[in-house]
Amino acid sequence: MGQMSLLDSQPPEPVDVVIVGAGLAGLACAQQIAAAGMSVRLLEAASAPGGRIRTDQVDGFLLDRGFQVLLTEYPEAQSILDYESLKLRQFLPGALVRQAGSFHRFADPFREPAKALGFLFDSIVPLRDKLLVARLRSECLHLTTERVFASEEESTREYLRRFGFSPFITERFFQPLFGGVFLERNLSTSARWFRWLFSIFARGHAAVPRLGMERLPQQLAARLPDQTLRLNSSVTQLEKSENGWFVGTESGAKYLAKRLVMATPEPQTRLLMASLRTPGVAPNRVWNRTTTIYYAASHAPVDEPVVVLNGDGPSAGPVNHLAVMSLVSADYAPPGAHLVCANIVGAAPESDEAMQKLESEVRAQMRRWFGDPVNRWNVLAGYPVAHALPMQTSLQPFHSAPVDSGVLICGDHVASSSIQGALVSGRMAAARILDTSAQSHF
């Protein structure tokens, strides 16, 4: 008891800023604050930084915790990440669409003219839709932020209908492709967000670091001063005091901060801030769910680094999209093996039994796609993610990080549902602190 009392009597460590959560938003915020010369402690409950962006090593395979990619034209990612050291490996533009028992290559005619010939002469897609895709691409390439927010706020599905696309291409191409991006197949996501993302796809590439998506947060964490990032530091206590914010962790560490930033996902932020007896944080967002199942295969089921889409819809099986990650980056699999990544939108099983049932349905669908070799695929892991992406039914200008009861909030749930949104929100939270660092309170 004497030792416990002695520990309890130790004063908290004084710092300028405490940030809770070392995902991309928290890391971006910490980097800006540290660069300005302020003292900062970045507290992360897990054993490594990254939040939802983590990579596991299993039997020589690199398994991202859910199918994740970096869109290389994200402006915030370009400004904060060192692409060269990440050694990015790119997916081919376009997609391979499974429809009515066969595969159809949807290529970008402006970047893959040779492969696009097949798409242009493929009678499965009406000519009018092909021309409309070209028109949409042209319009989005010249899209400005001002034009995005000047446009009508409506769902992506309604926007595609008004643009003139047929139900065929909406259901066979846009729904599985952007359903996989948004993690919701109804295309209820804001058309503003769709148009901006379409421009990002048209100008850049989807890519992964050579050694897994976890390299993104690892790169940001490596730039922080020593002792800034505190891992295995689950926050259990938040209190407002006359001198700032008292923050206590499960391990017994204590901090007294002039500023407090919550950079955890919205459900965790809401739970942690309940102790402050405030009305709540940001609006309670709806989160989209997903599950990724990884398989080891001796032979790749496709021969190029392209996303394969389920153009027949959910009635044909649970897999919305598939990729052979070892064709994108050879380091994702050991020599002589391939890593197949099957992705389900809208489901995140909570029990082993439900996960096993889902895997059997996935395997049955893959057998219909690729035949008997699927029987020899070995399951490596399954990742159900209940809080994968915040639902983005509207998109508003993001001018400043929100504040609740004096606490700054950042993360993709307050900006846009993306790596771009997480990084922007972290930088904006830091900017707000730096602009008001001479003030005693918000």
Low-pLDDT residue spans: 1-7, 437-442
Mean pLDDT: 91
CATH architectural grouping of the domain at 2-54 and 214-285 and 402-435: 3-Layer(bba) Sandwich
Q: What distance separates the N and C termini? A: 40 Å
Q: Under CATH, the topology of the domain at 2-54 and 214-285 and 402-435 is which?
A: FAD/NAD(P)-binding domain
What overall geometry do the principal axes of the alpha carbons give? globular
| Percentage of residues in helical conformation | 25-40%
Assigned CATH superfamily of the domain at 2-54 and 214-285 and 402-435: FAD/NAD(P)-binding domain
The oligomeric state of the chains shown is single chain
Query: How many whole angstroms does the radius of gyration measure?
Result: 23 Å
Q: What structural category do the secondary elements indicate?
A: alpha+beta
| Main sheet: strands, sense, barrel | 8 strands, mixed
- What is the name of the CATH class of the domain at 2-54 and 214-285 and 402-435? Alpha Beta
What does this structure look like?
This protein has 442 residues and is of the alpha+beta class. Among the domains are: 2-54 and 214-285 and 402-435, FAD/NAD(P)-binding domain (3-Layer(bba) Sandwich), CATH 3.50.50; 114-198, no CATH class. 35% of the residues lie in helices and 25% in strands. It has 15 helices and 20 strands. Strands 1, 2, 10, 11, 12, 13, 19 and 20 form an eight-stranded mixed sheet that branches. Strands 8-7-15-16-17-14-18 form a seven-stranded mixed sheet, sandwiched between helices. A three-stranded antiparallel sheet has the order 5-9-6. Helix 2 (24-35) links the parallel strand 1 and strand 2 (40-43). Helix 2 (24-35) runs parallel beside helix 11 and helix 8 packs across helix 10 (191-203). The model is unreliable at 1-7 and 437-442 (pLDDT under 50).
